[in-house]
Protein backbone atom coordinates (compact mmCIF):
# COMPACT_ATOMS: atom_id res chain seq x y z
CA UNK A 1 0.00 0.00 0.00
CA UNK A 2 1.45 3.36 -1.00
CA UNK A 3 1.86 6.31 1.35
CA UNK A 4 -0.80 8.25 -0.60
CA UNK A 5 -3.44 5.52 -0.32
CA UNK A 6 -2.61 4.98 3.35
CA UNK A 7 -3.17 8.65 4.13
CA UNK A 8 -6.39 8.79 2.11
CA UNK A 9 -7.55 5.51 3.66
CA UNK A 10 -7.27 6.55 7.30
CA UNK A 11 -7.40 10.25 6.64
CA UNK A 12 -5.78 13.02 8.56
CA UNK A 13 -9.01 14.89 9.19
CA UNK A 14 -9.41 13.81 12.81
CA UNK A 15 -5.79 14.47 13.87
CA UNK A 16 -5.95 17.86 12.13
CA UNK A 17 -9.23 18.63 13.90
CA UNK A 18 -7.72 17.70 17.27
CA UNK A 19 -4.64 19.85 16.59
CA UNK A 20 -6.95 22.70 15.57
CA UNK A 21 -8.81 22.36 18.87
CA UNK A 22 -5.51 22.58 20.73
CA UNK A 23 -4.63 25.68 18.72
CA UNK A 24 -7.97 27.17 19.72
CA UNK A 25 -6.89 27.00 23.35
CA UNK A 26 -3.52 28.52 22.37
CA UNK A 27 -5.12 31.52 20.67
CA UNK A 28 -7.51 32.04 23.56
CA UNK A 29 -4.64 32.07 26.06
CA UNK A 30 -2.60 34.35 23.79
CA UNK A 31 -5.54 36.72 23.42
CA UNK A 32 -5.80 37.02 27.20
CA UNK A 33 -2.04 37.53 27.49
CA UNK A 34 -2.01 40.20 24.77
CA UNK A 35 -3.70 42.74 27.06
CA UNK A 36 -5.92 44.18 24.31
CA UNK A 37 -3.21 43.65 21.70
CA UNK A 38 -0.76 45.89 23.56
CA UNK A 39 1.85 43.13 23.94
CA UNK A 40 3.35 42.15 20.58
CA UNK A 41 4.46 38.53 21.16
CA UNK A 42 1.13 37.23 22.52
CA UNK A 43 -0.65 39.25 19.82
CA UNK A 44 1.39 37.54 17.10
CA UNK A 45 0.85 34.12 18.69
CA UNK A 46 -2.88 34.89 18.75
CA UNK A 47 -3.04 35.75 15.04
CA UNK A 48 -0.95 32.76 13.92
CA UNK A 49 -2.74 30.24 16.16
CA UNK A 50 -6.15 31.61 15.14
CA UNK A 51 -5.35 31.33 11.44
CA UNK A 52 -3.97 27.79 11.77
CA UNK A 53 -6.85 26.72 13.98
CA UNK A 54 -9.44 27.99 11.51
CA UNK A 55 -7.61 26.47 8.54
CA UNK A 56 -7.49 23.10 10.30
CA UNK A 57 -11.16 23.27 11.20
CA UNK A 58 -12.03 24.14 7.60
CA UNK A 59 -9.96 21.20 6.33
CA UNK A 60 -11.51 18.78 8.80
CA UNK A 61 -14.99 19.88 7.77
CA UNK A 62 -14.35 18.56 4.25
CA UNK A 63 -14.67 15.01 5.62
CA UNK A 64 -16.31 15.36 9.05
CA UNK A 65 -19.86 16.67 9.36
CA UNK A 66 -19.92 20.37 10.25
CA UNK A 67 -21.80 19.98 13.54
CA UNK A 68 -19.54 17.19 14.76
CA UNK A 69 -16.34 18.97 13.69
CA UNK A 70 -17.38 22.22 15.33
CA UNK A 71 -18.50 20.54 18.57
CA UNK A 72 -15.23 18.61 18.84
CA UNK A 73 -13.16 21.71 18.00
CA UNK A 74 -14.97 23.87 20.57
CA UNK A 75 -14.94 21.09 23.18
CA UNK A 76 -11.21 20.54 22.94
CA UNK A 77 -10.50 24.26 22.97
CA UNK A 78 -12.83 24.93 25.89
CA UNK A 79 -11.51 22.11 28.05
CA UNK A 80 -7.88 23.06 27.43
CA UNK A 81 -8.57 26.76 28.01
CA UNK A 82 -10.17 26.03 31.38
CA UNK A 83 -7.42 23.58 32.34
CA UNK A 84 -4.80 26.22 31.43
CA UNK A 85 -6.65 28.77 33.55
CA UNK A 86 -6.67 26.34 36.45
CA UNK A 87 -2.98 25.52 36.06
CA UNK A 88 -2.01 29.19 35.97
CA UNK A 89 -4.25 30.02 38.94
CA UNK A 90 -6.66 32.24 37.02
CA UNK A 91 -9.55 29.90 37.91
CA UNK A 92 -10.17 27.79 40.97
CA UNK A 93 -9.93 24.02 40.77
CA UNK A 94 -13.05 22.47 42.23
CA UNK A 95 -14.42 18.96 42.15
CA UNK A 96 -17.49 20.13 40.24
CA UNK A 97 -15.39 21.87 37.55
CA UNK A 98 -13.17 18.84 37.09
CA UNK A 99 -16.19 16.53 36.79
CA UNK A 100 -17.85 18.84 34.27
CA UNK A 101 -14.64 19.02 32.22
CA UNK A 102 -14.43 15.22 32.26
CA UNK A 103 -18.02 15.16 31.01
CA UNK A 104 -17.05 17.43 28.12
CA UNK A 105 -14.09 15.20 27.27
CA UNK A 106 -16.34 12.14 27.27
CA UNK A 107 -18.79 13.91 24.96
CA UNK A 108 -16.00 14.82 22.52
CA UNK A 109 -14.70 11.24 22.56
CA UNK A 110 -18.27 10.02 22.10
CA UNK A 111 -18.70 12.17 18.99
CA UNK A 112 -15.54 10.64 17.53
CA UNK A 113 -16.69 7.12 18.35
CA UNK A 114 -20.10 7.47 16.71
CA UNK A 115 -18.77 9.26 13.61
TrEMBL record:
Location in the cell: Cell membrane
Membrane topology: Multi-pass membrane protein
Family: Belongs to the drug/metabolite transporter (DMT) superfamily. Small multidrug resistance (SMR) (TC 2.A.7.1) family.
Name of the protein described by the UniProt record: Quaternary ammonium compound-resistance protein SugE
InterPro entries xrefs: EmrE-like, Small_drug/metabolite_transptr, Small_multidrug_res
Pfam families: Multi_Drug_Res
Organism: Litorihabitans aurantiacus
GO cellular component: plasma membrane
GO molecular function: transmembrane transporter activity
Amino acid sequence: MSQQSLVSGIGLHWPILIASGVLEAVWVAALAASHRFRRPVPSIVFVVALALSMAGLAHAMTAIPTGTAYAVWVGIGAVLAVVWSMVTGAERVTRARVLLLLGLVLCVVGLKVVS
